[in-house]
Amino acid sequence: MPVIEVSKETLFEKIEETYTDEEFDVFLFDFGLELDDVTSPRKKHFANTGVLDETLSDEVIYKIEVPANRYDLLCEEGIAVALRIFLEKQSIPEFKLLPAREDTVMHVDESVTDIREHVVCAILRDITYTESTYASFIALQEKLHTTVCRRRTLASIGTHDLDTIQGPFKYCAKSPEEINFVPLKRTKSVNGHELMEILDQDNHLRKYLHIIREKSRYPVIYDANDVVLSLPPIINGEHSKMSVDTKNVFIEVTGTDYTKVNIVLNTVTTIFSEYCDFTIELVNVTSPSGTKVETPVLETRQVDVELEYINKGIGREFTPGEVVHALKRMGLPSSFNEDETIATAIVTPTRTDIFHKQDLVEDVAIAYGFNNIKPIVPPTSCYGKQNNLNAFSDKIRREIAFGGYTELLTFSLISREENFSKINHEDDDSAVTIGNPATVEFQVARTSLLPGLLKTLYHNRGNTHLPVKVFEVSDVVLLDDEVDVGAKNRRMLTALYMNHNNTFEQVHGLLDKLMVSLDYKWQGAPDYGDKYYYIKPSSDETFIDGLRADVVVNLNGEEQVAGTLGILHPNVLVNFGLQFPCSCLNLDIELFL
Rounded to whole angstroms, how far apart are CA atoms 420 and 36? Predict the structure, then answer.
C-alpha cells in the first residue's frame, strides 16, 4: 500500500493536537491507518549510504501507510483534513465552483481518439504555496501516477502556471516530427523523436516512454499561441512550468479511462483548493463532435444502508444518531428515513472509495473503534478441513521425502530464457508474461518446475555432497482460454537426482515408489486391473534421446500422459552451469485426484 511521508511538526500543527510517537501510532490505527516508520532526513541518508551527514535536518518524519483506494489521503493535506474531521475540529468541506470562462476552453481534436482520447481540466486561482505545500503538490501527483493512474497508462497529470499561457487550448495528436518544444528542465527545443532519445537517459521518465513511443502520432496540448503545454503522459513544457510563486494553476488530466481521469482531477483539485478557499474554476471541454462538458464534475452520490445491516455486520446495536455521528466523523454526511431503518450517506467527491453499503459499515466500525467492538462467539457451528489438492500434495511430499529427497521451494516467476531455451524448449508464447517486469529474472510465470531446481543446484554447487536428491511440489501457470482470467494454476512434481554416474533407474525407481503409494500397478504385472501405468519413448528435448520416456497412466478407463522422466540433455546442464549428470521426473499430480 502507498506510504506517505509527512512532517510530524506540520501535521500536529494542522490537526491542533500533540502526541507521542506511540500515542500517534494508536490514534492512526483508530482511524484505519498505520504508522510505518518514524525517521528524519538525516536518518534516511544514513540508512541509504551508511554515512552520517550532520548538515541534514533531524526533523521528525512520519511514514504513514494508507489504503490503496484512499486517494484523498495521498498527501499531507489530505491526511490532515481527514483527521481534523475525524477529531470533529473541522466540518466537511463544501467546494465553491466558479463558472467556466470563454478564454479557457479545451478543444479536443478527433486525432487523439485512438491514442489517448480523454482530457479533463480545472483551474485553481489565487492559490498560495509555501516551499513545503508546493513540494506536497508535486508529491501528490507522483503518488497518483503510481496508484490510480497505473504508472501513467490510464491517466496522467499536467499542471501549469496559467499566467504564462493563453487559452483557448487544443488537445490533438501529431507526428513526432511536427512537435517542437522545450521540455521541462531543458533549454533546447527538440522534436518528438529527439525527446525520446534524450529521455532514454532519464531514470525517472524513461519508464513511461513505451506508452506512446511506438505510435505514429503523439498526443500534445497547445495554447492559443501554439505554445506546447505538455506531451502527455511523458513531460510538460518548460514554458508553462510552475514554481512556488505560481498564483493561478491550470490542471489537465489526460488518459484512456474516463472514470480514472475524473477521479484524478477531482482528487488534486479538492485537496489543494484548501489553499484558495475551497474554490475551483470550471473549464469547458469540447469534444470532436462539439459536445461541451464542464470539468471537474464534482458530483455527490447517495448510498443507502439498512440499520439492521450495520448492526449485524459489526455485532452491536447502534442507534440512528450514533450511525449519523460516526459517518460524519468519516467525512460522510448522512440522514435516516422517517422510520429510522435506512441511512442515506452522501458520498462526497473526495471519497471515491465508497461503492457499496459494506463500505459504510466499515466506516461506522472505524469511527466507533475496532478495539471497542466486543468479540462474540458466532451462533453457527462450522468446521473446516484441508483442501483436497493440498492434502494430496502433502501425501506426495511425504512419500518422496521418505525416499531421501530434500524439498525445495523456488520462485514462481522466472526469466523467459530459463523457461524455454535453457531447457531446450521452443519459445511458443505459452507462458503468462509479466507486463513491464522490474527485472529480467521475473519475466514470465513458470510453466515448469525444472528451471528453479536447476538454478538452486547451481547456486549451491559448492555446499553440497553427491549424490544430490531434491524435489518440489508446487504450481505452474498455464494459459487457458476457457478460464475467465485466461490462465490457471496446475500442481506439478519435479524431482532431480545428481551424481557422478547418473542412471535412468534412479528416477524410475522413484516413479514406481509413488505409483505403489497411489495404488497403481505396472502394466503387465499380475492382476494389474484398471489402475495401471507404463512408460513409452518421449520426444521431450530436455532429455537425451533414447534416455527419456513419457509416463502413461490409465485414468478412469482412459490412458493419459501424466509426465516425463529421463536423463537431462548435456546442453541443459551447461546452460545452468552444472557439471554432473542429472536424472529428472516430472509429474502432473492433479491428474490423480
Answer: 41
CA distance 66 to 443: 29
Q: What are phi and psi of 39, to 5 degrees?
A: -145, -165
| Sign of the CA dihedral running 518, 522, 523, 527 | negative
Report the alpha-carbon angle 519-524-530, nearest 5.
45
Q: Tell me the C-alpha distance between 566 and 570, whole Å.
A: 12
Q: What is the spatial distance between Cα 340 and Cα 324, in angstroms, rounded to a whole number?
A: 11
Q: Beta strands 96-98 and 279-281: pairing type?
A: parallel
Q: Residue 286: CB partners within 8 Å, gap ≥ 6?
A: 105, 106, 107, 108, 292
Q: Which helix (H) or strand (E) holds 23?
A: helix 21-31
Distance between CA atoms of residues 240 and 260, nearest Å:
25
3-state secondary structure at position 334: strand
CB 252 within 8 A of CB 231: no
* Residue carrying C-alpha cell 502433502: 394
Measure the CA–CA gap between 400 and 416, rounded to whole angstroms. 29
**Residues 537 and 549 sit within 8 Å (Cβ to Cβ):** yes
- pLDDT tens for each residue of the chain, 593 residues long: 889 999 999 999 999 999 999 999 999 999 989 999 998 888 887 777 777 878 888 889 999 999 988 999 999 999 999 999 999 999 999 999 999 998 899 999 999 999 999 999 999 999 999 999 999 999 999 999 999 999 999 999 999 999 999 989 999 999 999 999 999 999 999 999 999 999 998 888 989 999 999 999 999 999 999 999 999 999 999 999 999 999 999 999 999 999 999 999 999 999 999 999 999 999 999 999 999 999 999 999 999 999 999 999 998 999 999 999 999 999 999 999 999 999 999 999 999 999 999 999 999 999 999 889 988 887 777 788 889 999 999 999 999 999 999 999 999 999 999 999 999 999 988 899 998 787 889 999 999 999 999 999 999 988 888 999 999 999 999 999 888 888 999 999 999 999 988 778 899 999 999 999 999 999 878 888 888 999 999 999 999 999 999 999 998 889 999 999 999 999 999 999 999 999 999 999 999 98
State how far the Cα of 552 lies from the Cα of 276, in Å rounded to an integer: 75
CA of 73: how far to CAs of 1, 64, 96, 155, 456, in Å?
12, 10, 21, 19, 43
Q: Which three cell numbers stand for residue 589?
A: 499430480
With cell 497547445, the residue in question is 222
| pTM exceeds 0.85 | no
